[in-house]
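Subgroup meeting minutes
Present: P.N., E.W., G.H.
Scribe: E.W.

1. P.N. recapped why we're keeping a running log of single-chain structure predictions: easier to compare across weeks, and new members can see raw inputs and outputs side by side.
2. G.H. added today's entry (121 aa).
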Amino acid sequence: QVQLMESGGGLVQPGESLRLSCTATRSIFSFDAMGWYRQAPGQERELVATITSDGTTHYADSVKGRFTISRDIAKNAFYLQMNSLKPEDTAVYYCNSRKVVNVEGATAVSWGQGTQVTVSS
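Output recorded in log:
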């Protein structure tokens, strides 16, 4: 099973930026999609951004225009550039990968352990 690891979280003030990284133990070329999710205390885990194997990206409305997801196949890594951070962005951020494993369309999913992002003045 593929293993994922996030890094780059921390404490920043509103309006500042952070860049999160997700590295994989296997080539990300084999993934059908990778993405970022986040979960705040007492809240459900929510989708932040995704990127598919052809490079198509999708963003939650709450982060559109501020966050950018990208990939580097040679480094087996995906990134989340977060600009103009707001206090409501505070959460644990998780890296996610998906791979279709059979003809019925079943998908294997892997998760990182999470990295804390705190935005506070």
